[in-house]
């Protein structure tokens, strides 16, 4: 029962408008809007989403609903001059779902309600077409039986096929009235057998049951799955539209079709759509008969065609967007059954937005809102040729988009070796670790059988713009035997060619041809949008990006660890580096030096190891500052646990055991093994890492600070403009930061005095622990900037290990609706986001000029960027290939909030 006695649950099409989508659903609101525009819409009424909510919450319809429906049905009958289901002159109606957001095919529709054993004869006389009447009746029983009474739909299909086979015809249109009468009888028997009751003959009962079925269809498995996928809230409910029937199956002068005001695939203007003569709407959707292109309607029924073209222009001008239209022609009379803003490809979205600006229908701010970062990302990555013949062998998590082809290799050494010989390779691992970085750089793409979207492989691959498929569990990876075995038993040996699609997660054997992205060529500077031969899509992207850059408040930086990545990021529009991870500088040939540091037993040994690393670190920073000259570069001091720089414990134990068995020298391996055991932690990500390393290992952080300071001084001497910022990771209390800061300031002063160069290096911290966020006001006393490390903050707030949970239970959490999306993919606004918001407020209260940014993976996620704009961060930082997406979304966030303020 509804709480508000005065609540209105039913609206006539003449009462609503397109702004009432929350109440009337998209379909109902747009039917009302077309009615208001004077377009030919069959009369009807809409039952609101509020009625659906009451039904879903209480298990029964609002008590007021039946009387409201009766009143509107009476008005409809008077307007049409017919009564629902009366024997001699029946009114027939359709009952159709219509949620706020389009959910095509996910919920229920029933046509021809009001037909019965009595009224079918009246419809035949009314239409002067007996075959049409019986065809409509069999359609009602079939749709009603399947949708409302939950009868297996294949039973009806089989019965119809039997009738066609008996008549020796291929199409149901070849069945005459006598044939269809037999089909109706057969259908009624199917209903009786399956449900234990006769097909309802009372037209009002038919309508009421259909309305209830539409309400129930909101919570079907397919509807819930679709909502999760499209991130549509589950508490909206659906409206129900009751519309007087118009018939496209009255003969060759009737038909039904779907039209688009411009091409949803390309965005180009023209006549796009399909038409089917002598048919009802579900015939087009079901694809049971071949349609003809909409353009052919001109020769079939020029009057209706011309009228439709005028209406399409009216609707596109009114909605100021691409419109998707459903229509029916009944004996030469055109009727509009639905319109909505049409779905489109990513390329079409950008083209249409700029076209509408040129037509004066929308301004640049609105054009920016018509596209999304997700669409831009789709345009940036190469794709496999969809026309190619392929053999799929597995599927994993689409971790980093793109299409990559190469020879299978199973370790980084081989990947680098083969790559240097000119081979394209795909690095295949059970999972990757920092030691695989060289191989990942060398490979065209990365495939792992474990891990999720925020695993090491995924995060690093996205940072490099490298295609990656993770967590392909059905593929068994055997790195020792250098082979991969599929679930069906196909064996991929090292050297065999494989193709991986990072946009879908699909894995193929053999080479699948790819199509390059002109949009990336534009961002890389290899294609100029102003050139006469510039791709039309590139021009559209250029125009929208230029506007986004003009209006956005958030600056966009890059996560980059070397000069090459920094240069690419700068070409992509980065305004500095928000995260340089120095641990990546300690791998490869420098690993031996790090091992010496870890194994050092005396101060002298430790100082010697640090002294050897210093010039190498300095060289890295010089190159980085040169690539980002004039822009800020935030360098994070060493963060991961030291065991990551040592060999695997199992592998090392085997080496030691073999050496002892062979009585070979193994003193160094034994020391390494002892160090591995000494550094072993049950949960290393919550152990000795970050600032704790700097406090426990004397000289480690000061060596890095000295390298940064000396590199900055060298660049200043060379007339450069380095803008280095030093970031202390994993701080949980202000005392940690104060100690490191004091030591760092001494080193910077020493370098400044020694070089004669005045150095101004900002010192700040990452906020990646809940305690840091809660005590941000205290920490800001010692920090000139905060950078939110939302990857670790999400881990520590939720108590998740991001390398484990995605593969183990995230799928179940998503299916059960606990997550709408992984909190590692889009920031958890209520939990993690609340900590970010409070830390921003506390930090600014202590230090009003504090600089605030984010450098976790969320910095490149479209939805998260809007949140960071809202809470007042100064910049986001993300992997180079996500920079254009972040720029676009930062612009959309600014334009959207400006529009909200003005409203």
TrEMBL record:
<keyword id="KW-0547">Nucleotide-binding</keyword>
<feature type="domain" description="Pyruvate phosphate dikinase AMP/ATP-binding">
    <location>
        <begin position="22"/>
        <end position="58"/>
    </location>
</feature>
<dbReference type="Pfam" id="PF01326">
    <property type="entry name" value="PPDK_N"/>
</dbReference>
<keyword id="KW-0067">ATP-binding</keyword>
<dbReference type="InterPro" id="IPR008279">
    <property type="entry name" value="PEP-util_enz_mobile_dom"/>
</dbReference>
<feature type="domain" description="PEP-utilising enzyme C-terminal">
    <location>
        <begin position="539"/>
        <end position="890"/>
    </location>
</feature>
<keyword id="KW-0460">Magnesium</keyword>
<dbReference type="Pfam" id="PF00391">
    <property type="entry name" value="PEP-utilizers"/>
</dbReference>
<keyword id="KW-0670">Pyruvate</keyword>
<comment type="similarity">
    <text>Belongs to the PEP-utilizing enzyme family.</text>
</comment>
<dbReference type="GO" id="GO:0050242">
    <property type="term" value="F:pyruvate, phosphate dikinase activity"/>
</dbReference>
<feature type="domain" description="Pyruvate phosphate dikinase AMP/ATP-binding">
    <location>
        <begin position="296"/>
        <end position="347"/>
    </location>
</feature>
<dbReference type="InterPro" id="IPR015813">
    <property type="entry name" value="Pyrv/PenolPyrv_kinase-like_dom"/>
</dbReference>
<keyword id="KW-0418">Kinase</keyword>
<dbReference type="Pfam" id="PF02896">
    <property type="entry name" value="PEP-utilizers_C"/>
</dbReference>
<dbReference type="InterPro" id="IPR010121">
    <property type="entry name" value="Pyruvate_phosphate_dikinase"/>
</dbReference>
<dbReference type="InterPro" id="IPR002192">
    <property type="entry name" value="PPDK_AMP/ATP-bd"/>
</dbReference>
<dbReference type="InterPro" id="IPR036637">
    <property type="entry name" value="Phosphohistidine_dom_sf"/>
</dbReference>
<protein>
    <recommendedName>
        <fullName>Pyruvate, phosphate dikinase</fullName>
        <ecNumber>2.7.9.1</ecNumber>
    </recommendedName>
</protein>
<dbReference type="InterPro" id="IPR018274">
    <property type="entry name" value="PEP_util_AS"/>
</dbReference>
<keyword id="KW-0479">Metal-binding</keyword>
<feature type="domain" description="PEP-utilising enzyme mobile">
    <location>
        <begin position="423"/>
        <end position="505"/>
    </location>
</feature>
<dbReference type="InterPro" id="IPR040442">
    <property type="entry name" value="Pyrv_kinase-like_dom_sf"/>
</dbReference>
<dbReference type="InterPro" id="IPR000121">
    <property type="entry name" value="PEP_util_C"/>
</dbReference>
<dbReference type="InterPro" id="IPR013815">
    <property type="entry name" value="ATP_grasp_subdomain_1"/>
</dbReference>
<feature type="domain" description="Pyruvate phosphate dikinase AMP/ATP-binding">
    <location>
        <begin position="64"/>
        <end position="290"/>
    </location>
</feature>
<keyword id="KW-0808">Transferase</keyword>
């Amino acid at each position: 029962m509804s709480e508000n006695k005065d609540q209105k649950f039913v609206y006539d099409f003449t009462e609503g408008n397109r702004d009432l989508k929350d109440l009337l659903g998209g379909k109902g609101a747009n039917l009302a809007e077309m009615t208001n525009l004077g377009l030919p819409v069959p009369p009807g009424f809409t039952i609101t989403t509020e009625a659906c909510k009451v039904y879903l919450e209480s298990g029964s319809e609002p008590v007021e609903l039946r009387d409201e429906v009766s009143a509107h049905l009476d008005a409809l009958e008077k307007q049409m001059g017919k009564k629902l289901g009366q024997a001699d002159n029946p009114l027939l109606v359709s009952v159709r779902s219509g949620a706020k957001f389009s959910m095509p095919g996910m919920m229920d529709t029933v046509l021809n309600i009001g037909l019965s054993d009595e009224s079918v004869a009246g419809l035949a006389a009314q239409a002067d077409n007996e075959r049409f009447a019986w065809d409509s009746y069999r359609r009602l029983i079939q749709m009603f039986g399947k949708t409302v009474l939950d009868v297996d739909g294949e039973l009806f299909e089989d019965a119809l096929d039997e009738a066609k086979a008996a008549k020796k015809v291929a199409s149901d249109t070849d069945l005459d009235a006598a044939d269809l009468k037999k089909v109706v009888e057969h259908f009624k028997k199917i209903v009786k057998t399956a449900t234990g009751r006769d097909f309802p003959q009372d037209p009002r009962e038919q309508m009421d049951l259909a309305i209830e079925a539409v309400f129930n269809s909101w919570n079907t498995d397919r509807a819930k799955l679709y909502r999760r996928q499209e991130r549509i809230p589950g508490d909206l409910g659906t409206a129900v539209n009751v519309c007087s029937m118009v018939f496209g199956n009255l003969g060759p002068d009737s038909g039904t079709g779907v039209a688009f005001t411009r091409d949803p695939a390309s965005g180009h203007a023209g006549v796009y759509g399909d038409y089917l003569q002598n048919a009802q709407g579900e015939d087009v959707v079901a694809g049971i008969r071949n349609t003809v292109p909409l353009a052919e309607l001109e020769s079939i029924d020029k009057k209706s065609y011309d009228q439709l073209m005028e209406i399409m222009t009216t609707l596109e001008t009114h909605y100021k967007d691409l419109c998707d239209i459903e229509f029916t022609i009944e004996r030469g009379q055109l009727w509009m059954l639905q319109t909505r803003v049409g779905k489109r490809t990513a390329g079409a979205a950008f083209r249409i937005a700029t076209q509408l600006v040129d037509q004066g229908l929308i301004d640049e701010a609105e054009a920016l809102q018509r596209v999304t970062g997700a669409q831009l990302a789709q345009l940036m990555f190469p794709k496999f040729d969809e026309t190619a013949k392929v053999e799929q062998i597995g599927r994993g998590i689409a971790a980093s988009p793109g299409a990559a082809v190469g020879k299978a290799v199973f370790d980084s050494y081989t990947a680098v070796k083969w790559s240097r010989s000119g081979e394209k390779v795909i690095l295949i691992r059970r999972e990757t670790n920092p030691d695989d970085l060289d191989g990942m750089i060398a490979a065209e793409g990365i495939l792992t059988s474990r891990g999720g979207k925020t695993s090491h492989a995924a995060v690093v691959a996205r940072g490099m713009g490298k295609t990656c498929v993770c967590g392909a569990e059905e593929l068994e990876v055997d790195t020792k035997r250098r082979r991969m075995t599929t679930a069906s038993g196909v064996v991929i040996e090292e050297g065999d060619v494989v193709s991986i699609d990072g946009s879908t997660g699909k894995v193929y054997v053999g080479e699948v041809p790819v199509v390059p992205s002109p949009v990336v060529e534009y961002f890389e500077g290899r294609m100029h949008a102003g050139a006469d031969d510039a791709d039309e899509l590139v021009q559209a992207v250029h125009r929208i990006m230029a506007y986004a850059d003009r209006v956005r408040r958030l600056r966009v930086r890059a996560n980059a660890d070397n000069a090459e990545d920094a240069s690419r990021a700068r070409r992509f529009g980065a305004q500095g580096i928000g995260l340089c991870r120095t641990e990546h500088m300690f791998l490869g040939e420098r690993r031996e030096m790090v091992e010496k540091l870890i194994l050092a037993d005396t101060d002298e040994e430790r100082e010697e190891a640090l002294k050897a690393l210093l010039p190498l670190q300095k060289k890295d920073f010089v190159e980085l500052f040169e690539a980002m000259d004039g822009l800020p570069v935030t360098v994070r001091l060493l963060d991961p646990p030291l065991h990551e720089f040592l060999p695997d414990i199992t592998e090392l134990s085997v080496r030691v055991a073999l050496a002892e068995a062979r009585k070979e020298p193994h003193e160094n391996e034994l020391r390494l093994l002892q160090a591995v055991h000494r550094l072993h932690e049950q949960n290393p990500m919550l152990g000795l890492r970050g600032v704790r390393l700097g406090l426990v290992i004397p000289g480690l952080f000061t060596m890095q600070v000295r390298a940064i300071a000396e590199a900055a001084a060298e660049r200043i001497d060379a007339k450069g403009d380095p803008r280095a910022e030093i970031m202390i990771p994993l701080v949980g209390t202000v005392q940690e930061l104060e100690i490191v800061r004091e030591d760092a300031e001494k080193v910077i002063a020493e370098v400044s005095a020694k070089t004669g160069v005045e150095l101004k290096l900002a010192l700040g911290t990452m906020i990646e622990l809940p305690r840091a966020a809660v005590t941000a006001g205290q920490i800001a006393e010692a920090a000139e900037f905060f950078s939110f490390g939302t990857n670790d903050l999400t881990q520590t707030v939720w108590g998740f290990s991001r390398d484990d949970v995605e593969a183990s239970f995230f799928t179940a959490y998503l299916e059960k609706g606990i997550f709408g999306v992984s909190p590692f993919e889009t920031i958890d606004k209520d939990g993690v986001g609340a900590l970010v918001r409070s830390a921003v407020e506390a930090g600014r209260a202590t230090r009003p000029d504090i600089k605030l940014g984010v450098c976790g993976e969320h910095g490149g996620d479209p939805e998260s960027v809007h949140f960071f704009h809202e809470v007042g961060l100064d910049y986001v930082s993300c992997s180079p290939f996500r920079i254009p997406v972040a720029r676009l979304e930062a612009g959309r966030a600014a334009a959207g909030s400006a529009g909200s303020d003005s409203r």
